[in-house]
Amino acid sequence: MSNQLPGLLPLDGITVVSFEQAVAAPIATRHLADLGARVIKVERIGEGDFARNYDSAVHGIASHFVWLNRGKESVTVDLKTAEGVSVIRTLVGRADVVVQNLAPGAMDRLGLGAEELRRDRPELIVVNMTGYGTDGPLKDRKAYDMLVQAETGLCSITGTPETATKTGVPASDIAAGMYALTAVQAALFRRERTGVGAVVDVSMFDATVEWLGHPMYLQMYQDTQVQRMGLSHASISPYDAYPTVDGRILIGVQNDRGWRALVTEVFDRPDLVEHPKFATNILRVRHRAETDRVVAEHTRRFDTDELDKRLAAAGVPAARLNDMRDLIDHPQLSERDRWRQIDTEAGQVRAVLPPMTFTDVELPMGPVPALGQHTDTVLTELGLTDATIAGLRTGGTVG
User: Fold this and answer.
1) Burial of 79 by CB count in 10 Å (0-12 exposed, 13-18 middle, 19+ buried)?
2) How confident is the model at residue 6 (pLDDT cuts 50, 70, 90)?
3) Residues 260 and 253 sit within 8 Å (Cβ to Cβ)
4) CA spacing 20 to 30 A to 86: which of 129, 206, 224, 280?
5) Strand pairing partners for 349?
6) How far is Cα 314 from Cα 262, in angstroms, rounded to an integer?
7) Three-class SS of residue 325?
8) Residue 163: burial class (beta carbons within 10 Å; 0-12, 13-18, 19+)
């Protein structure tokens, strides 16, 4: 990238200590690391974040873990020991932010709850991430992404008319992680002006409910449950995958101008512009089956490449139905130089640049840490001697 200046990362100088596992908290802290924060990940001795063991797809390392944990430091500590908790208290004493998504109440039971951590450090920012929130009837329930998608009703609007499904990526986890990321940045900004930190609660349930605003309002005020439409859309037509000579292409006409462009410039059928069944989106939705039939009659005359070019030239929204191999080879990534190499304990792997693109500096993409890789370094920074560290390791307090 051009005009890059060193040392201008947005979160330079910010230290984050994270007690995290799986997806929701790790995706928040990975973005904090991408933005320049120092992220110290506290893990269990021996096992670590259980996402390390989801699979072994990336040179023997779990794909989730590679995705979510680059740029962090791993410290292994037994938090069930008084010595381990003491070490962590010292570590947190030097932190700006604490993020945690352990089981409900776990941090409080360890004596590491937000109130206790901030008693002498009101400037500390603590983000507690939960499945269902810190109160209410479900507060103590286990909450995995699929369960939250089901509980919030996201599954009820996802899938085909015959089958409800969860999303193909952990949407509830990611939603919570993104709100945690936003909350940390907002709290840091406020602290710059007031000197006061914050305690923030982010739940997967609440984050997913926020994403469901549109179908929720339809139900509340029109008594309408959004139907599962597959690739289609309950309120827009034509909006679906349509056949071509050699495959399918997705077309999404959002308004009547788009319909005019589709039928005149792509299909050469100006007579369809004011057709009594197709002239407006409301009419096209009402006559969805006929609309789809007419569109399909025309799209199947073209091969996918030709139709894609014609739709683009006419300004009609369309997309190819790509798979993961198509994504990896996508020119929108390669021609924009979005791929980088990052280090792992098993060697270098490919990774895509963070979505936040600063024009003056490229965000770092640090190594994926081995379990406990930075324990000695961090403990030494805290003032512990080599002999003390060796004693803690012998006693099983640190890994």
Assistant:
1) buried
2) low
3) no
4) 129
5) 342
6) 7
7) helix
8) exposed
* Token pair for 283: 């009419």
What DSSP line would sit under 199-259, residue for residue?
EEEEEHHHHHHHHTHHHHHHHHHH--PPPP-TTSBTTBSSEEEEE-SSSEEEEE--SHHHH
- The DSSP 8-state label assigned to residue 52 in this structure reads G
Between CA 217 and CA 208 the distance in angstroms is: 14
- Identify the helix (H) or strand (E) that includes residue 188: helix 171-194
Q: Give strand pairing partners of 128.
A: 100, 201
Predicted confidence band of residue 7 (pLDDT cuts 50, 70, 90): low
Contact between 16 and 99 (Cβ < 8 Å): yes
Query: What is the C-alpha to C-alpha distance for residues 63 and 46, in angstroms, rounded to an integer?
Result: 19
Q: What is residue 91's predicted lDDT score, i.e. its pLDDT?
A: 96
Let me know: does 40 contact 15? Beta carbons within 8 Å. yes
Q: What crossing angle do the helices spanning 171-194 and 145-152 adopt, rounded to 10°?
A: 90
Written as six digits, the tokens of 303 are 């091969």
Phi, psi of 141 (to 5 degrees): -75, 145
To 5 degrees, how large is the angle CA 97–CA 177–CA 1? 85
* pLDDT tens digits, one per residue of 89-147: 999 999 999 999 999 899 999 999 999 999 989 999 999 999 999 999 998 888 899 99
Q: Confidence class of residue 235 from pLDDT cuts 50, 70 and 90? A: confident
What does the pLDDT read at residue 1?
39
Are the CB atoms for 70 and 30 separated by under 8 Å?
Answer: yes
**What pTM did the predictor assign?**
0.91
Contact predicate 124/98, CB 8 Å: yes
Retrieve residue 231's tokens. 């690739």
* Residue 328 C-alpha from the chain's centroid: 18
Task: Determine the Cα–Cα distance for residues 4 and 277; give it in Å rounded to an integer.
Answer: 55
Helix (H, G, I), strand (E, B) or coil at 147: helix
How many other CB atoms sit within 10 Å of the CB of residue 261? Answer: 20
Q: Is pLDDT above 80 for 5? A: no
Q: Which two tokens stand for residue 30?
A: 């990975």
Joined together, the tokens standing for residue 319 give 């997309």
Would you tell me how many other CB atoms lie within 10 Å of the CB of residue 81? Answer: 15
Instruction: Collapse the DSSP code of 65 into the 3-class scheme (helix H, G, I; strand E, B; otherwise coil) and give the result.
Output: helix
